[in-house]
Amino acid sequence: MIKRIILFIAVSYCFAAKAQQPLSTAIKTQAIDMGKALINNDIASFQKYMHPDVIEASGGAEKIKSMMDTAFKMFKTFGGQIKKITYGNPGEIVSHKKELQSVFPQSTEVSTSFAEITLESTFIAISYDKGKNWYFIDANMYKSALLKDKLPELSPKLIIPPQSQPKIIPKQQQ
Fold first, then answer.
1. Please, are residues 65 and 47 in contact by the beta-carbon 8 Å criterion?
2. Cβ-count burial of 105 within 10 angstroms (0-12 exposed, 13-18 middle, 19+ buried)?
3. Residue 86 φ/ψ, nearest 5 degrees
4. Per-residue pLDDT tens over the stretch 72-120
5. 3-state secondary structure of 85
6. pTM reported for the whole predicted model
7. Cα diameter, the chain
8. What are phi and psi of 145, to 5 degrees?
9. 17: part of which helix (H) or strand (E)?
């Protein structure tokens, strides 16, 4: 009898782990699409992945588009280029208040005329449709307390690590 119970628990655990895998793949695939949109300055595609509350708090989609266009022009004027964006694997996917939520790391490598910069971020992934579509929020954009105020539906199970300092390697002046 004990062997059957142990076997049942082991099989149940394996099925639960397999169920998380497609959701993790969807998060990572959609995050990669969001990153490609950012690199290509495709703001319309990028906004598909922005959390609706963040869009609203920022003044709406048109205002965000205008701000991003201006930021990209300034960035390029000073020799800025996003070289690479990479994503780590999502953490545990939790179900909270009819949502699926997770966190995952992102690393962005930026080149400017004066330095090579690596930025490490933690992103929050939220799905309202059982994992088909994901919205992303850069947790480093807000302090933890402010993040909980802006998004009170966040699960207390989500572990958001403290923000790390950017790594800056100055370029040699010629």
1. yes
2. middle
3. -125, 155
4. 888 888 888 989 999 999 999 999 999 999 999 999 999 988 899 999 9
5. strand
6. 0.81
7. 77
8. -65, -40
9. helix 2-39
